[in-house]
Design brief:
The chain is mainly α and 142 residues long. Helices cover 74% and strands 0% of the residues. It is built from seven helices and no strands.
């Protein structure tokens, strides 16, 4: 588990810092392990892998590849599914980075609609946190 989550976090960090070549190299070196190990994980846990890989492609300006990765067939786990919200926020970021203004506006609206469906959160500050994440993703900050 430790190696798997280390790989996922390294992909995200390198991508967020804009070090796409390092992220690409790291993915190439570890992709067999990541994909094989992810088969033992739940779809929610696999979502982290797909989002991390999409961020690598986004950092490398391979937006079509990033969007393809985000269509991995995630099924919502109820109306308070924070993983779905994280996926939607990642989609907002990808659209902002790609320059698709029309798609960005629709993605922001969808993420905000998803957030409004939540009836409970783990923490009292979570709603404001996720709204801030949506707003920042729309500005290119993730």
């Amino acid at each position: 588990d430790d190696r798997y989550y280390y790989c996922i976090e390294m992909l995200k960090i390198k991508s967020k810092l804009g070090h796409w070549r390092d992220a690409d190299d790291f993915r190439t070196e570890n992709i067999n392990f990541i994909q094989n190990y992810s088969q033992k994980k739940t779809l929610q846990q696999q979502a982290d892998m797909y989002m991390a890989l999409a961020l690598v492609d986004c950092a490398a300006k391979r937006y079509n590849d990033a969007f393809k990765l985000m269509k991995f067939g995630y099924k919502p786990q109820g109306k308070n599914d924070t993983k779905l919200l994280e996926i939607m926020i990642t989609g907002v970021y990808l659209l902002q980075q790609s320059g698709d203004q029309e798609g960005l506006e629709a993605a922001v609206a969808s993420a905000q609609a998803c957030l409004k469906l939540f009836s409970e959160f783990e923490f009292s500050w979570s709603r404001a946190y996720y709204q801030k994440c949506i707003d920042e993703a729309a500005e290119g900050i993730i």
